[in-house]
């Protein structure tokens, strides 16, 4: 079973307008509202790819109620611990003229110690050998920076494969445990490893350092410059042989994480799983909503993705 912990979910409001001009009044051409947060996007992508995931959340207030209603309509399997404070709203401004995205994140609600303990106890009680636990996104107020590290510590000895997709100190602390997978981008890797990543050789060095910390699978993303990944000591590069993408890039990395973990859990060879997951991430850019993609678009994206071994 794949479990996805989204500690800091949000209700995403995507506003589509021509162009943002400072000090001017704007009228949105269209508005799309969907449950969001990196972990929600991951679970949604797994569902879209035909898999099953159990989504774990902290939700509160009227926004939390809207999230519950929306997740049920999507037929996502989820469990949440209630909060007194309101779940945050994330506003995304999409400019059709420039294709720029501006993301405005509200601060997350306070998660009391009691709810944090309930979450940890759930992980200890219900996760076991062969399960996957994806820890995705930022941490809200009330959760210590080592919360993901504590989640990993409590389940890694039980044969659970832990995947971490976060940044900064929460990622640094989580790396104190043996992890199945991490998926930092170059900026996040620089922050944790402490050196600038400018060249292809720098990326290989970064991947090797993550492996030295006990990570079995590393996926280091660098936007349009592709991906450098490792799996069981082997190195792989991912590039596009043609520029195939849409306008909506938010959630593409989350889609990749979810589909890659799903494919690996199904026993698909790594290179094949990585190629398909990358194609699903590209397909996400053609749809409004993070973690959303049309399976009919995936074959076209798959033709553009090249995965090659690095000698």
Strands, total number? 14
- When the domains are counted, the total is 1
Fraction in beta strands: 25-35%
Helicity level = 25-40%
Roughly what is the average pLDDT, rounded to an integer? 93
Could you describe the largest sheet, including whether it forms a barrel? 10 strands, mixed
Q: Output the CATH homologous superfamily.
A: Ribokinase
Number of helices: 10
What is the general shape? globular
Q: Nearest-angstrom radius of gyration?
A: 19 Å
CATH topology: UDP-N-acetylmuramoyl-L-alanine:D-glutamate ligase
Q: Low-confidence stretches at least 5 residues in length (pLDDT < 50)? A: none
* Quaternary structure of the protein: single chain
CATH-defined architecture: 3-Layer(aba) Sandwich
Describe what you observe in this structure.
The chain has a 10-stranded mixed sheet, with helices on both faces. It is built from 10 helices and 14 strands. The two termini are about 35 Å apart. The mean pLDDT is about 95. It has one domain (about 1-310): Ribokinase (UDP-N-acetylmuramoyl-L-alanine:D-glutamate ligase, 3-Layer(aba) Sandwich). A hairpin with a 2-residue loop joins β12 (about 225-230) and β13. The protein has about 300 residues and is an alpha/beta fold.
Describe the structure concisely for a colleague.
36% of the residues lie in helices and 27% in strands. With 311 residues, it is an alpha/beta fold.
Keywords:
alpha/beta, 311 residues, globular, 10 helices, UDP-N-acetylmuramoyl-L-alanine:D-glutamate ligase
